[in-house]
Amino acid sequence: MPHVTYDLPVPTRRSTVLRRPVNRSSSRSKSSSSRSSSSNGSISPPPPPVDAPGFLFCVELGLVVRSRKHNHKTIHDLEAELSRRFRQAGIGHMLASKHPLHGYGWDDRSWVIATEPCIRSRPSDYRFGMKFVSPFMSFIESGDSWQQRLDTVMAMLNENFELTTSHQCFTHIHIAPVAGYWEFDQVQGLAKSALYFERCLDELVPPYRRNSIWAKSIRNNHYFGSLSMIKAFDRVDTSPPSFLTLPAMMNWCSKSSPTGEALGRGRYKDFAHNTFRWNFQNIDPVDGRGTVEFRQPPGCTTIGELVGWVQLIGCLARLSCGHDIDPAAAPKLKSLGKWLMYETKFSNVPNTHCLKALLKQATPVTSVPGVMPGADPEEITIEEDQRLKWEANNRNLVMEQYRTLMLIY
Fold this sequence. Notes:
Layout: H1 25-34, E1 55-67, H2 75-88, E2 93-95, E3 111-115, E4 128-133, E5 137-138, H3 145-160, E6 161-164, E7 170-177, H4 184-196, H5 198-202, H6 229-238, H7 245-250, E8 252-253, H8 258-263, E9 271-272, E10 278-279, E11 292-294, H9 303-320, H10 333-346, H11 353-360, H12 382-392, H13 397-405
Parallel strand pairs: 2-3
Antiparallel strand pairs: 1-4, 1-5, 1-6, 1-7, 3-4, 7-11, 8-9, 10-11
Helix pairs in contact: 4-6, 9-10, 9-11
C-alpha cells in the first residue's frame, strides 16, 4: 500500500456516527446490550447468537521452503516444482512472477505462489522464502469445506516440501464482509477489539512475534500509547466517521521511529503504515471496500495451527460487530476463549478442537516496568531496515485477489 500522510484530529466530544441504512439496528442494539462484558471481564451464561455479517477470509502464508526430493539452486527452480505439485494435486494456482500485472490472466479462485523478499533465503541450503496466498473463502458455510480446501494444500506441501519458519515468517489472515463493503460501526467494533484484546492475543504467539517490527502494537502505537483504555475507546468512538481517519489512527507510526527512519529519512510528519498487529490500511477511504488484516501469527506449518487461527479471527470479527466491550474491565484470555467457543457453536463451525488447542497453548506475558510491549524498538538491524524498504514496494497480492473477486479494476 502507498504510504499516505495525514493530520489526525484530536476529538473533543462525542460525535454522531453516520452509517449506511441497515435492517439490523434494533436486533444489534439488543445483542450489544445482552452481550456486554461484566465489570470483572468475565462472561455470564451463554449469550444469544450475535447478529453479525458473514465474512470472507484470505490467508497469506510466509514460510521457508525446501524440496524434499530436489536440491534447487535458484528460487525459480523451486517455483517450478511448486507449480507442478499444485497442478498434480488438482489445486488451482498462479505464479505471481508469471502475472506481473493485475488483471492479466488473474483468477480469484486460485492460490497465488510468490517469492517473499521479507523472509531470508538460504540458497546454500536450498531453502527459500516463499508466500502462498489463498483464494477468498466464506467463513460461515455448510460443512467444513474451507477447512478441507486448506487441508488439501497443507498436506500436499508437507508431503513434497520441508516447511520451516524463521522470525520473519508469518500467517496473515484477511477478512472482509460478504456484502463487499464495511459499515463504519463494524470497523469501529473491530478496532476496539484489536485494542482491548491485544495483550490476550499476545499470549498465543511466540515471544518474537510480540516484539516484531512486522506486527507492532496498536495499543502502544504513537497515537494510542499514552492513553488509558477508556480514553482510547473514546478516541475510536469520537473519531470522524471516515474510513480514512480511523484506519490511520489504528496504524499510526512515528516519523522518528526506526520504521519511520527506514521508510524515508527526513519525514516531517507521522504517517500511517501497515506493519502492525492489525492492518486497517486496505480499506478504501471512499466506499469502505477492502480487508482488515491480522498479521501477528507466526508461520503455520500444520493444518491444525492454520485452522485454529482462522477460527479465532473469524469468530472474533463476528463478535466484534455485535458485542459492546467495557473498557474499564480487565481483558482476560480465559473469558475471550469462552466468548469465541460460544460463537463457534452459534456459527456451526466444525473441528473446534483446533481453536481449543490454540487457546490451550497460551503463555502468559510478563510485563516489564517502563517498557511498552510491541512498540517500535529503539533500533533495528541493517537487514530489517532493508527488508522494510522491500516490503513497502512489495505487491499486495491479497488486494489483487480481492479486486478481481469484487470486479473492481
